[in-house]
């Protein structure tokens, strides 16, 4: 096959001009011309996935805070457009709306689990605990809009693979506080999780953020050695 701009011999042996096509990019190391539009790499796919998740998280959070509180109104087409990808790309990563929501759930829960030891590395246990609670409350505002999907997918929490690691993250914070004397000893992390679960039921559109702060104050006061 001829390169762009080459002359090709016709049936009579004379040369005819070949119409010019789009310019080719610089040749590859083995001398072959590189494609103008290379296939997406694994890095491209990962970047697309992260952009979709970021935009979806913002869209669901905004929808949860709306008066209706209905994340069902979040458009996957709008998410794809805002993320700068085609709707086909979004569906390749997340075939259904539920798949997208569950991936957000896994991503954010794992982030919270990882944050517990990270906060302890930078702050005293009592401060780390409260900062972590604040992050849990922020996550709760997202979960409020999609709780039914998560509840159904995890059989009401019975099949939730993140339950034990999440309880373990709470235990790490409680143990550190007990060691330095800022928190009571013998606290049950599952009891604390039950207290935190009220955050999933606070409507962000009805003073949810301020109410969450007040509830967390009450929880912390009950955990610390000196109110």
How would you portray this structure in words?
With about 230 residues, the protein is mainly α. The protein is built from eight helices and two strands; from the N terminus they run E-E-H-H-H-H-H-H-H-H. Helix 4 (about 95-120) packs parallel to helix 6, helix 5 (about 125-155) packs antiparallel against helix 6 (about 165-180) and helix 5 crosses helix 8. The chain has a single domain (about 45-225), classed as Orthogonal Bundle (Tetracycline Repressor, domain 2), CATH 1.10.357. The N and C termini lie far apart (about 80 Å). About 60% of the residues lie in helices and about 5% in strands. A two-stranded antiparallel sheet has the order 1-2.
CATH superfamily: Tetracycline Repressor, domain 2
Q: What gyration radius follows from the Cα positions, in whole Å?
A: 27 Å
- The total of beta strands comes to 2
Strand order of the largest sheet: 1-2
What can be said about the biggest beta sheet?
2 strands, antiparallel
- Bin the strand percentage: under 5%
Structural class by SSE content: mainly alpha
> For the residues shown, what is the average pLDDT?
78
Helix-residue proportion: 55-70%
Overall tally of domains:
1
Stretches with pLDDT under 50, minimum 5 residues: 1-29, 32-39, 67-71
Give the helix tally: 8
CATH architecture classification name: Orthogonal Bundle
Q: What would the principal axes of the Cα set say about the shape?
A: elongated
């Amino acid at each position: 096959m001829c390169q762009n701009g080459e002359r090709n011999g016709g049936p009579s042996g004379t040369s005819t001009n070949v119409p010019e096509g789009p310019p080719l990019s610089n040749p590859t190391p083995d001398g072959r011309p590189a494609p103008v539009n290379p296939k997406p790499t694994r890095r491209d796919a990962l970047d697309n996935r992260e952009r979709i998740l970021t935009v979806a998280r913002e869209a669901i959070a905004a929808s949860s805070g709306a008066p209706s509180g209905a994340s069902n109104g979040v458009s996957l087409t709008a998410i794809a457009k805002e993320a700068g990808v085609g709707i086909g790309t979004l569906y390749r990563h997340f075939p259904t709306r539920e798949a997208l929501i569950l991936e957000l759930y896994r991503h954010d829960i794992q982030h919270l689990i990882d944050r517990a030891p990270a906060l302890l590395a930078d702050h005293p246990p009592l401060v780390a605990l409260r900062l972590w609670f604040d992050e849990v409350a922020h996550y709760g505002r997202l979960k409020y809009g999609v709780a039914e999907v998560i509840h159904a997918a995890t059989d009401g929490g019975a099949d939730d693979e993140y339950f034990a690691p999440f309880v373990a993250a709470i235990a790490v914070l409680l143990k550190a506080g007990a060691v330095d004397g800022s928190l009571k000893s013998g606290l049950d992390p599952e009891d604390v999780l039950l207290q935190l679960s009220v955050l999933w039921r606070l409507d962000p559109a009805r003073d949810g953020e301020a109410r969450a702060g007040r509830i967390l104050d009450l929880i912390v006061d009950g955990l610390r050695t000196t109110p």
